[in-house]
Amino acid sequence: MRKSAAADGLANTEPGKAGKERKKIAGSTGVKTAHDGTGAYDLIAYIEGGDISELGNTIVSQIQSIDGITQTMTSVVVELP
Q: Of 21, 34, 39, 61, which residue has the fewest beta carbons closer than 10 angstroms?
């Protein structure tokens, strides 16, 4: 069985740029869904990778590097018994 990693990525954007930045995030490798949000974060994305390193690479090189993204928080998904 292949191990994989997944996370919920939360992001804030510069004012008025959430829709534009969501489209960029949605096109990133490993991003399965991306949505605009309300409340503490402007964007919510579900991200998958082959392992935690691949997941981290997607978050750092493809999401945090987007110019309009001002802050991110990542919550790694786990399965508890």
A: 39
